[in-house]
Amino acid sequence: MRFDIYLESGPQHCKTWVSVPGLPGCWTVGPTTEKAIENARTAIQERVTFLRRHGETVPDPEPIELVVAEHVIERSLLGYGQHSFAADLDPLSPDEAGRLLRWAVWSREELVAAARAQKLPLVERPPSGGRSAAAILSHVAGAEWSYVSSTLGTLSGGSAAIAAIERAGEDPWAALAAERESLMARLRAMTPEELARVTERGEGRPARTARRMLRRLLEHEWEHVLELRARLQHATREPETAAPTR
Questions:
Q1: Which of 106, 176, 220, 236 is the most exposed place for a label (fewest CB within 10 A)?
Q2: What is the maximum alpha-carbon separation in the chain?
């Protein structure tokens, strides 16, 4: 199956982000452009497995054909998925938007499951560094409100919803569910005009569209699902057998 991939690299290709808009939410990154493209094959398979896990009918992608449709290299972009690509300018149909919102529901389920499975208290940062699981949850919630507000206009209630998640500490689940339902209500109410609108933001700033908004929402949440799963795998890995003392 052919997949057009869109690359964003920092200076000297020191880090490259790959987005697969034909499979929204599918992304990967690599220390070089070549490695990022290589990683895209695994990312596509993982995304297909995620969709099938939730009952979505997806054809077998093998053999995977990768075609670089666009590669942005700018000093202002460091390979963190910030750019708008040509594919983001295509309008969304109501049916397609509804399909992506279903994917967002499944993605949130998997984020919550990964957070609940953590071995450390939610508010405790891992010894290796980085955000606590609680901070990741509030970060994901805050980011999606930012994506939606910058595309559809400022939504009321976002600051209060994020603050409620942060205050909840070890028990953020009800606040997180309330935040997401409020956001999803607005997304389900998008009009055909909003689904097709392209908002230009001036030179050097990516255009805002509903397609880009949902792509980034799905990519960003999936990024942190994988982060939490990686922590869990690290925490549950069997320790090496100590060498006998003499």
A1: 236
A2: 76
The fold of the 86-235 domain, in CATH, is: Four Helix Bundle (Hemerythrin (Met), subunit A) (1.20.120)
Task: Classify 72 as helix, strand or coil.
Answer: strand
What pLDDT is attached to residue 246?
A: 32
Contact 64, 44 (CB under 8 A): yes
pLDDT digits (tens, 9 = 90+) for 81-138: 677 888 999 999 999 999 999 999 999 999 999 999 999 999 999 998 899 999 999 9
Q: Look-up: residue for tokens 């053999």?
A: 63
Report the C-alpha dihedral over residues 189, 110, 38, 23, rounded to 10 degrees.
Answer: -30
**Structural domain spans, the chain:** 2-73, 86-235
Measured at the CA of 150, the angle between CA 69 and CA 19, to 5 degrees, comes to: 20
Work out the pLDDT band at 194, boundaries 50, 70, 90: very high
Task: Determine contact, residues 101/180, Cβ cutoff 8 Å.
Answer: no
pLDDT tens, residue by residue, 28-47: 999 989 999 999 999 999 99
Helix ranges (DSSP H) in the chain: 33-53, 94-116, 133-152, 158-167, 173-188, 192-196, 210-236
What CATH architecture does domain 2-73 belong to? 2-Layer Sandwich (3.30)
